[in-house]
Amino acid sequence: MKNFISKARLFFCLFAVTAIVSCSKDDDDNSNPSNTISDVVANDAGLSTLESALVKANLTSTLSGTGPFTLFAPTNDGFTNAGITSDVLNSISTEDLSNLLLYHVIPSSVPAASVPAGPNAKVIVANGDSVFVTNNSNGVFINGIKVIEADITASNGIIHKLNNVLIPASGNIVETAQADTAFSYLVAAVLRASTGSVDVVGILSGSNILTVFAPTNNAFRAAGFATIDAINAADPDLLAGIVAYHVIAGRIFSSDLTDGAMPATLAGGATVTIGVSASGATVKGMSNTAASNITKANIVATNGVVHVIDQVLLP
Question: Is residue 12 in some structural domain?
């Protein structure tokens, strides 16, 4: 009997110790809640639009996975700045939205200090496309868009906040212009110019990397081209010279523009003058009385970048 009681006491003691250890383990698990990229996004009120987009695109589980990942996270204001409202998000198909969001993901963990200096170093993102990064004394830039808050850590990677949305290229420079009705006059000018001695369409669709300052339809009207018919009646070689004066070599994002710079254009090397101030960036032709405002910057094309301007540049 004494032997039985001793064994019973030993059993209860072991049970008590096991229970204590188990409770302690549960406490430890509860003190370390999940902190994946998806969790960080969900817990940040300033990223609520992004959270909704990730849910619709079925990417929350992906960004809760092992990773590591780097997410360039547009804030709520970033979606607004890009003109992407909740209604727009609702109208985008799940597949297209997934592609857009994966354009913001690098399948590795890249802190700000490890972003290549560039300028505009090519980096492959999770949808198989490319972004162009710069890391200099002014900060870190992705496709010309500045990181406004860097190195937010998660258990499976890192987050950098943006005040805009990264939009993948929809085609080359000509195709990009053709996809936007605000450039219908510019497209007409490019097509008409190509009927002359210069293949402007071929140049703007080719493999050479270019930057185009793209005047809007209203800008062409203000410059004396009242209608597309007026453009189609103009001398092709004259139009070729005008279009060429809006093109410079290289991929020049807004983050690359410097005040007072005078880059050469494809119009025989004739220069334009760049202005950069707190109110934004401008570009001025040699015969313009006032500078043209860059009203929308950093539209990515497969062979360069487009900046929207509100005046036709005059050499």
Answer: no
